[in-house]
Amino acid sequence: MPLDHSLIGVDGPSRERTWTAKDTMLYALGVGAGTSELEFATEKGQRVLPTFAVLAAQAPGRRLGDFDTAMLVHAEQAFELHRELPPAGSVRTSSRVTGIYDKGSGALVTTAATAVDLATGEPLVTSRSAVFIRGEGGFGGERGPRDTWAPPDRAPDHKVTYPTLPEQALIYRLSGDYNPLHSDPEFAARAGFDRPILHGLCTYGVTGRALLHAVAGSDPGRFRAMSGRFTSPVFPGESLTVSVWVDGAQVLFRTAKDDGTVVLDRGRATILPP
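Above: the chain sequence. Below: its structure as tokens.
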């Protein structure tokens, strides 16, 4: 069957999730944190990388229709933190499909989710995401809202380059995303890649680390929101350069590979003053 448009606006099943200090340390390693970031990668004075919010607020997967899952890629991701994430915690997450848009060559499916603290009932994370499903467009639907994002007409205020490891995807998948696109060469070939690609959320997490250290003084308590659109795949072992423009609390960013290919575009972040 085609994509199920009856899902739009309907709440999906809620999910309770608990994470431990080990989970948040493993996540930090999965997005490249190392010996210069021990407060995120060890238990001594442990704090949590803000982009872990995306995993904390993940809702149960929903069947969107009948299609080859190798044709699905992560397209957009955003989150807002209502307070700093604890090293260990428990939340209940509810979500709904907010739109299914016709992009011609494929369909864009957007989702929103809210995670509330199980102990207090207070919101902890609000997230928005979108997946692009190749070959599922052309159904005559709306194309969806347009984003007017554009970088300032000046050099970036910061440029940060981080390498990724050849085994980066194998580490990151231990945080829960076992999609074989990131580990199985045969599955990756079905999707048109000559080898497994890095998780989009790993690229997102590497970018979040760059923003945290460049514009938030390495203080996750100041990091409130982040959004971006995935535009090109990254292969494990490639380096990522994050260009950052700062205008008060509003931060714009773009992430690219060494050859200049932009992989995370239309980036926005909100950073609180010290």
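The longest strand covers residues 89-102.
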